[in-house]
Amino acid sequence: MVELVDAPHSKCGTFGFVGSSPTAPTKLMKTYQRFPLDLIKGKGCWVWDEKGEKYLDAVAGIATCSLGHSNKALTKALSKQLRTLQHVSNLYGIPEQEELAQWLTSNSFAKSAFFCNSGAEANEAAIKLARKYGHIKRNIENPIILCSKESFHGRTLAAISATGQPKYHKGFEPMVNGFMFFSYNDDVSFENLFDDLEKTGSQIAAVLIEPIQGEGGVNVGKKSFFQLVRSKCSSSNVLLIFDEVQTGMGRTGTLWGYEQLGIEPDVITLAKGLGGGHAIGALLVNELADVFEPGDHASTFGGNPFACRAALTVGRELQKRDLLNKIKQRGHQLKEGLINLSAKYSDIFISTRGVGLIQGLVLNDNIKTTSLDIVKYVLKEKLLLVSAGSKVLRIVPPLTITKKEINELLTRLDKCLMKLS
Ligand SMILES: *Cc1c(COP(=O)(O)O)cnc(C)c1O
After folding, report:
1. 153 CA distance to ligand 1 centroid (A)?
2. Are 296 and 334 in a shared domain?
């Protein structure tokens, strides 16, 4: 028999960063390289560490805390939900889930929704859906899914297999097969791969792609490229799946990233900002892609009342507070500021890219400084940023960030860069 003991209140260990010694022996696996601070409190765009230091948060749980921290509407709705019903099972009807599916389909191209708990899971569901579609609608024996290089689709085995970055595969081979890769925004690369496969017997079930590559370096999708992809998919009955885990729910200033590209996909996957900091993922499909039958897919926690209430509240706050317009304005303000910084520190940066409140500052390849170096450096100015690959600094604040806070963000960044250059 195990005697139960209590866990002492403890601080996180900080693996991996030079100059930061683990503050306490950690019982956590070594999966994360953590910065040497524990966050214990948040309000709006601000978070506090255990010493009481206050940080401006332009990470937002990696594009996740869309309404900021401790948002009033979310706290109120979720407190009520906690007192009402938290979790049952998909064995039964869940009104909050139905309501969320209504909200999402009323405000998008989609006809129906499936709920899970994370981005990787949503992509897993999309991959299964694409294969089923290939089998039953196209009679394909070995359905292939085309994905882009530099993409990111999550950390489960099928999701890393779909991710076009070898660093995520290393050590976990063999990958799941059935994925092939083209270069993002590259008409020729895409058309060649697509046409070659079609010639050998049309085995492509789907194309899986991000409207903006987030982790891959804030690469913004080109309209003309995506229109080509859409038309090739349509004429060959290939599903077009958008991974909108990072771009969905308003991040770009439109509710969905696909609206920026003037086309509609057949399927989108969502997570990150959907729950405003709470775990929920979703798969939205149109009529053509609606191929799952009872028993095909499931999730124990997926679409529970609490998670659905969180997402419903985020959606309604986006509407009520006219946030999409505000995101556009704040996005322009941020972009302008970043363009100025990029010009002022042209020894460090070569450009900026992004849409709305997903922005990136691109570092010069010819210097040793990495985006992680700068992320560590701006921590001293009490600013939280996150890198997107080794050469892009990513800025994804809460969607509720104010004009004044964006100015503050730019001022803090400027102060750091002045010392760096
Ligand atoms: C973060 C992310 C994922 C993975 O989401 P998890 O919730 O971490 O599984 C997948 N796709 C994109 C585009 C992402 O940004």
Report:
1. 5
2. no
